[in-house]
Amino acid sequence: MRTAPTILHLDMDAFFAQAEQASKPSLRGKAVVVGGLGPRGVVATASYEARVFGVHSAMPMAQARRLAPNAAYLTPRGGFYRSISEQVMGLLRELSPLVEPLSLDEAFVDLEAGGAAWDSASARLAGERLRADIRGVTGLTGSVGLAASKMLAKIASEQAKPNGLVLIEPGTERALLAPMSVRTLPGIGPATGDHLRRAGITTVEEIVEAGEDELVRLLGKAHGHGVYAMALARDDRPVVAEREAKSVSVEDTYDVDIHDRLRIGMEVQRLADRCVRRLRGAGLSGRTIVLKVRRYDFSTLTRSETLRGPTDDVAVVREAAARLLEGVDTTGGVRLLGVGVSGLADYTQEDLFALVAQAEAEALEGAGVDDGAEGSEGEGDVPPGVRDAEVAERRWHPGHDVRHAEYGPGWVQGSGLGRVTVRFETPWSEPGRVRTFRVDDPDLEVGEPLPLVRPEVEPGAASVGGVCG
Ligand SMILES: [Mg+2]
């Protein structure tokens, strides 16, 4: 393991919510919740002001609304967040060729590999400069953790939040980890955490006290060794520039085709168990459960199901695999079965990509409902004008950008009953006024996000004529 704290972990603070507050002056200092606003929606990010009420990522939106009824509820603007993310990742790549993104707003950087730092002092300097550059380029704050390993760099950035920097001096790691929850360690997901708790082990210190043999007895050989090493702060995992599309899978080919549906079900459960053992052994968890079935005629089907968050829980994988099997016709028999888990994370982290994708899909789903009904007959009880208004209403997603011919740029605060309420403000203006329009107002159109940092006026642009003359 290296001896200098030259692994950097960057995590933007409440990323989507902060981006929305920066875009919308009227929401600064207020509770803001970004996520899917439909009936099955979940919270992607809550601002720090909303977290005070107990709202957090991956919580059902209905629950968030009960906890913080007065918060602003916004649909994610995925393209906008991605463009900020690209700016941030670009700054990280200036520091080192070894940048490992974990999500849109989070990444590891090997500062030593880029020559950007070699000891504590230079690492701290690089981290502070990075934070200033991120602020300057994107207008947003991020927190930085610095340590000699990935595990500790991530713990450090968590401690630094919001808008801070924490450097863990090499040699102090074990004392720091000792009182922390076992869940802090990479490779300990909810299921492993519960398992250890039932054995009376809740803190990292208790893992060390239990000893390696006991850990191996509780978690199996590979997983036990791995967790014990992490508890001793031994983490040699390198920062890898491109995360390989990792997956763990197991499969069995049968000498004789299996016809019995019950037997097929039992085989799938057995494969799920084996797959999870392998997953845990590698200290991983994953979000997508895959079932593979090769039938008697060599036709091969794969079915998959993506969960809200990563899992290493055998019951969850078993259930998902069983659900997937329900949708597969096995009459005629099967000759091969396989169960896999992909979308792997070495941390059971909130998955922003997935949450944004889900929220956007829901927003589109809402918009698409009427497309299918368009031109359909037999809805004579709904006056045509009302239906048009409903279609128009669905264009206006809370939080999304609009432009009005007279009032300029603004964002949708809400819509309903044929009306849309727009707040007219920009990232660089004072909090703006609200105006209400008919949803089909021809002066109102969908707008583009404005940059959070005001584009600079070209210096000397006004005096070009004079200079040249
Ligand atoms: Mg973050």
Compact overview of the structure:
It catalyses: DNA(n) + a 2'-deoxyribonucleoside 5'-triphosphate = DNA(n+1) + diphosphate. The chain has 469 residues and is of the alpha+beta class.
Question: What labels would you give this structure?
Answer:
469 residues; binds magnesium ion; 5-stranded antiparallel β-sheet; 5-stranded mixed β-sheet; SH3 type barrels; Dna Ligase, domain 1; 16 helices; DNA polymerase, domain 1; 17 strands; alpha+beta
Please give a structural write-up.
The protein is of the alpha+beta class. Among the domains are: 177-231, DNA polymerase, domain 1; 247-345, Dna Ligase, domain 1; 392-456, SH3 type barrels (Roll), CATH 2.30.30. The protein is built from 16 helices and 17 strands. The chain has helices spanning 15-23, 48-51, 61-67, 78-95, 120-138, 150-160, 173-177, 190-198, 204-210, 212-219, 221-231, 261-281, 314-326, 352-373, 384-393, 464-468, and strands at 7-12, 32-35, 43-46, 72-74, 99-103, 106-110, 142-147, 165-167, 247-258, 285-295, 300-311, 334-345, 401-404, 408-416, 419-424, 433-438, 444-446. It has a 5-stranded mixed sheet. Strand 7 (142-147), helix 6 and strand 8 form a beta-alpha-beta unit. It is globular. 40% of the residues are buried. Residues 347-351, 367-384 and 461-469 have low confidence and may be disordered. Magnesium ion (MG) binds next to strand 1.
